[in-house]
Amino acid sequence: MAKQKLPNPKPIEAKPLIKTQWYERPNVLGLLLAIIAVVLYAVTFQNEWALDDVISITMNSFTQKGFAGIPDLLSKDSFYGFIGNASDLSGGRWRPLALISFATEIEIFGWKKTGIDNNLSLAHFMHFNNVLLYAAIAFLLYQLLYKHITKKIWPSFIITLLFVVHPLHTEVVANIKSRDELLSWFFLLLTLIFALDWKKKNKTIFLLLSVVSFFLALLSKENGVTFIAILPITFFCFTKMEWKKSFLATSPFIIVTVLYIILRFSIIGFVHKEITEVMNSPYLYATPMQALATKIFVLGKYIQMLFLPLKLNYDYSFNQIPYTNFGDWQVLLSIVIQLALLIYTFKEINKKNLIAYGILFYFFSVFIISNLVVDTGGVMGERFLFQASFGFLIAVVAGISLLLQNFFIEQKTLKSVVISILVIIVLPASYKTFSRNKEWKNDKTLFIKDALTNPNSARTNNGAGTSYIFLGDEAQDSLLKKSCYDSSVHLLKKALVIHPKYTDPYLNLGVAYERKKMIDSAEYYWNKARELQRSHPKLSEFDKVLVAGFLSNAKKDYEKGDTSKAINDYRKAVQYGPNDSKTWYNLAGIYFTTHKYDSARICFEQTLKLDPKDEMAAKALNFMNATKK
Fold first, then answer.
1. CB 518 within 8 A of CB 526
2. How high is the pLDDT of residue 16?
């Protein structure tokens, strides 16, 4: 029987590999995102000092010493160099890393003691470094997403792009002082990247790099402690570990946190002072239920601002966000949204769901600044969402991606829809970010703009009123000068309508009226400030201004022949300058001229008590005594 001939099997042809285009390479896309960050924030290179730069840089005696100030920055509260008195500090803040970076830049550039404006080149340099740090964050964000989280090129790109252009981040980048937020997030990203490399490659060097990065993040700002909760979730979702091993893998970071806390309290301790000013204790006037309802409302406001950052403000203190209660529909809506997100998360997290991971990342990041456990000293702040926005964007992009996959079958159609959505979001967001960066140019620009868009904050109105005083001082035209001082008075009085016990507007109203040559009004408002805060350090300075103002008025009144008013002005000058011998001498002189010799004698005697070498007063007193005899 003939053998059956078997057919020759045809070899399976290898399918050609899909080549990755050069622009799809991770490093190329990461670099592109970094460049976008630089382009978007390049306008800040010409910005000046603004807001809390005064605390960390322009009036911080330690950072201004350069390298010589670093030992003090490491061993004292972060506000000590500005306040200069440990007894005036409350709570404790130890964030030395950003301050050390400022001291280093000052060491390079030097600090000119001839005025803040003479250090603008240093401000430009510091802004440049903030933008470079933001660009580095953009690069790291993409690497983290692509290598460990989404593991896909374009979802990683979209999430990072939305993070880069988000207008809420302008405060962190455009305000030099907020480098503590930038450094914290930079090192936390390195913490995540190295931690995931450690678990996937099983190399101890990555664990070492991760815990060092985590410690540096804590030295930048304490909100890095949230990663004690975020890390085990990250291990669970993006490695093959189950929950138990994920929590065990977090133990090195818990040890670092404990060491950091011990070090922190051994260096700065904890000083608790009772705060009686609502500007620094936002829920001071609220009942417990009002405070809780308002905090929940703010959590809803945060989500709203992440979606629609339309009106941005550097300040949300009293009374920009009024106290509310649980009958407010917005509070109830916030509760429903938060609960719905949490319920979804707890149902899906065991499936290693990316949306659930993003939601949990957001909640743990925002929890520490929610005022629910730790008092932040403010109702809310845009900078507080810097870290949290990453989790938010992961959840949103993953959620939209899931929806689109269900609605569109054709890949080409899906791609067109994604690009259209991106254009609709990215272009307006980029424009808002660019324009907001220009508003951070300096205090005057920022304060005046925010008083228009967010008019219910006492601090914002006070800041804008103060800015108009500076603009009036700079104006050459007399009409423009008057207009600026009038605007200042209007805004400062508005601040007092919002918060009648706010000391600063009273002090600044006194300055505005002094500029308007209305010394009686200046006296009234400075004395109102004195009633609220008798020991305010500015009052002694303003008393000297009152002395000079009343002396000037007295001279004019005397020249007009109104001796009664002149005497009253001299007496006020003496009231605010009781240790000024010349003031007593002038009062004695007008008493003598108006034949009030007993009063004149008392004033001449007081003049000699203050200045025994005053020959004119001695001669006048001798003459009066001889005449009396």
1. no
2. 45
**What's the CA gap between 560 and 558, in Å, rounded?**
5
In the numeric block, which tokens belong to residue 594? Answer: 């108006």
Residue 402: count of CB within 10 angstroms of its CB: 13
- The Cα–Cα gap between 444 and 146 comes to 42
Instruction: Please check whether residue 436 lies inside any domain of the structure.
Output: no
Model confidence pLDDT, tens digit, residues 347-359: 999 999 999 999 9
Contact criterion met (CB below 8 Å) for 328 and 297? yes
In sequence order, which residues have a C-beta less than 8 Å from that of residue 284 and are 6 or more positions away? 275, 276, 277, 278
Polymer length of the chain: 629
Q: Give whole-number Cα distances, 607 to 41, 192, 289, 578, in Å.
A: 61, 73, 60, 10
| Domain extent for 328 | 288-407
Q: What pLDDT is recorded for position 91?
A: 56
285 three-state secondary structure:
coil
Q: One-letter amino acid identity for 283?
A: Y
Q: Say whether the peptide bond before residue 579 is cis (omega within 30 degrees of 0).
A: no
Please report, for the domain that includes residue 566, its CATH number. 1.25.40.10
pTM: 0.89
Can you say how many angstroms the Cα of residue 496 is from the centroid of all Cα atoms in its chain? 23
- Which amino acid, one-letter code, is at 439? E
Helices H / strands E in the chain, number of each: 28, 0
CA 182, CA 546: separation in Å to the nearest integer?
45
* Alpha-helical runs (H) found in 241-325: 243-249, 251-268, 288-307
Residue 5 located in a structural domain: no
Under 8 Å between Cβ of 460 and 450: yes
Amino acid 529: pLDDT? 95
176 and 64 inside one domain? yes
